[in-house]
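Let us practice reading a record.
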Amino acid sequence: MSSEFHRIKRLPPYVFEEVNRLKAQARSRGADIIDFGMGNPDMPTPPHIVEKLIETVHKPRTHRYSSSRGIPGLRRAQAAYYERRFGVGLNPNSQVVATLGSKEGFANLAQAITAPGDVVLAPNPTYPIHAFGFIISGGVIGHLSADPTPEFLSRLDRAVRHSIPRPIALVLNYPSNPTAQVADLDFYREVVAYARSNDLIVISDLAYAEIYFDGTEPPPSILQVPGAFDVAIEFTSLSKTYAMPGWRMGFAVGNERLIEALARVKSYLDYGAFTPIQVAAAAALNGPQDCVQDIRNIYQSRRDTLVDALGRAGWTIPSPPATMFAWAPIPEAYQSIGSLAFSKLLLEQADVAVAPGIGFGEHGEGFVRIGLVENEQRIRQAARNIRRFLQSDGSASDDTDDIAEDSDRETITQ
């Protein structure tokens, strides 16, 4: 085995692994790393969901193989959620598939629809699976700046016309990971009309549908647009909505042909999630939803603390309207070294871990992604550490005492 395997050769080095390696080394030396790097919700799963899991796991029959499409009750629960939340009717038997998280769903859909050399248009920057799921499947990625502005359609049309062969699919992700941008229904209407006219599949990632702030309109589904079922499939996840990341529970819904293709591939690869997890996931969707608002409030409070504390520490970042991430421009003094080197410096000199923007595509260079996965006290501690780091070139503010006082006040009130 002297040569590298074909599919592995198509994958670049995993940028985040460099930061993860340094993080592990620092922790082995006893460093207290404040970790904003991974979008890994740290809150407990709501008790009624956990209780349903425990209740179900005591039933021996639930320990048998499950269904790769998802148990009927879970698919009905997802269809009911779409009706309640978006006013979209779904047939749970033909338009809903349960997936092992949205990441697995994306990868298996790519296996189902991609022939060698097929072109897929994906946002840049974007969550890596949006591109690499298709690359692993033999596809070719056409990168597209996916800012949901009036200019998007002309960029899309230019990408389609200048691609040989013509693209088979377009990936969208709003609210966006990593940029936190949001799209409205008018945007989706234009995309659906274009996709129907140009025989283009639209793959929508709506994993952050319930994480939005400031009393803004809840993010819409592309399936709310008339005609969207002709071209679109949409992925959602319970990971962020109900703080269930390790449960690996997500869904694909939409166009019946695409759903059937995904289900067929899955039938060869898995037996679905453990049945008690599926039953508990149905309880999450069907049960009381105040926990969703509670989780949303926690993320908004952390976002406000992060933006305020880092701003006073000398690092101004835009306030994200949605998701559990801030997309932060690298401070001007460090722009020349790039996002990976800056992330390493933050880790080595401030004990703060972030995700380098270059890991989300070349157009992510100049930014880092900060996950809202630490509490307010830890966020303020990170701001103090970062301010000391930024002092080396004089780019920090003089508000360290204010940040420290806020942290002390929070410690007292918790």
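A brief commentary: Confidence is low (pLDDT under 50) at residues 407-414.
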